[in-house]
Design brief:
The protein is mostly beta strands. The protein has a domain of 152 residues: Peptidase/esterase 'gauge' domain (Methylamine Dehydrogenase, Chain H, 7 Propeller), CATH 2.130.10. Strands 1, 2, 3, 4, 5, 6, 7 and 28 form an eight-stranded mixed β-sheet that branches.
């Protein structure tokens, strides 16, 4: 009888071990997306991607109150939570993960070798913020989520900066093209980009077939597709902002005579930095070029938008400002504090 009980206990222990192993394996599996979800907007990614609004409304951002470390908050600024000590740029999010390029400073004091992989592409579990994996340990830029892949610029000593992709599970990292195309404007499975070396046309890259097709021939920069319209800077027209129908059936419309340094589109409005030696300013206008408004005089950069607010940084001082989309005259310094920690 004792022998039977002993055997049963051994079987139960082995079964429990197998069950734990299966659970442990399942709990560490990557949760893949069912469709071609896009991780952030074109305008945000062109402007360093320091803000990102997830589908549930959670805002992930580089907190200026804590040296641009990764935080989350609600749209009204509540539930401010520190997610990571990493300095975050090019933030993307889906239902399960946060993807970002960490841009941590390199220390010069003794044991600085411990800061290895300070510039790298990371994935962080949204529900378990301590669970982080490296998707690419090399220096990375302009990360953009397309379904179950991240497209980005990868740097190494052999080819320098090139166009790369990696699975969200960290698998199959490889070079897509030697040319450093910026994958900021994404719609479903398609990436819209401008030529860099051989031409400056606007192209559409299909992430399923790995093929590109011409969208608009010309000398253009920073394309952003919103619905059926494509916006871009017209290089031969003093870098003015222009738009046309995505099908190419309409004439190109110049939206403003201003030379523009950077821009972002949210809803019916375009926010942009007016380049001027005498009257530089952050401005906004509607997507048809009407309702031109000066928001703040001076030179600004990193224009990022959420569903309710627009954030921008003073080029010289680095101070970050915030203005609600509903009232552009209300401009204030964005200093959210440090809140709680979920590290």
């Amino acid at each position: 009888m004792k022998k039977v009980i002993t055997i049963l206990l051994i079987i139960l222990v082995l079964a429990a071990g197998v069950g734990f192993g299966v659970y442990h394996h399942k709990s560490n599996e990557t949760k893949f997306n069912d469709d071609y979800i896009n991780g952030n907007t074109a305008g945000n990614l062109y402007n360093a991607g320091i803000f990102c609004t997830a589908a549930d409304g959670t805002i992930y951002f580089a907190n200026p109150s804590d040296n641009s470390k990764l935080y989350s908050m609600n749209s009204d600024g509540s539930d401010l939570t520190k997610i990571s000590d990493d300095v975050a740029t090019f933030i993307n999010a889906d239902d399960n993960y946060i993807y970002y390029v960490r841009n941590n400073p390199v220390f010069t004091e003794p044991f600085s070798f411990l800061t290895i992989n300070t510039d790298s592409l990371c994935r962080l579990d949204r529900s378990k913020h301590k669970k982080r994996i490296l998707l690419d340990s090399s220096a990375s830029l302009y990360a953009s989520l397309v379904g179950n892949k991240v497209y980005y610029l990868h740097y190494d000593d052999k080819d320098f900066t090139t166009f790369y992709e990696v699975g969200i599970d960290g698998a199959d990292s490889h070079q897509v093209d030697k040319t450093p195309y910026r994958p900021c404007s994404v719609v479903g499975q398609y990436i819209y980009f401008n030529g860099v070396s051989n031409d400056h046309n606007i192209w559409r890259f299909d992430t399923v077939t790995d093929t590109s097709e011409l969208v608009l021939k010309g000398n253009y920069y920073m394309p952003a597709v919103i619905g059926d319209t494509i916006f871009f800077l017209d290089n031969e027209n003093n870098y003015t902002l222009a738009s046309t129908d995505l099908s190419g059936s309409s004439a190109i419309t110049t939206l403003s005579d201003d030379r523009i340094d950077c821009y972002n589109i949210t809803g019916n409005y375009i926010y942009f930095q007016r380049n001027s030696t005498s009257t530089p300013a952050l401005c906004r206008m509607k997507t048809d070029g009407s309702d031109y408004t000066v928001i703040a005089e001076g030179n600004y950069t990193n224009i990022n938008a959420t569903e309710t607010d627009v954030y921008f940084r003073d080029f010289a001082s680095g101070v970050m400002y915030k203005t609600p989309i509903a009232d552009p005259s209300d401009v204030e310094i964005f200093n959210p504090g440090t809140g709680s920690s979920d590290k």
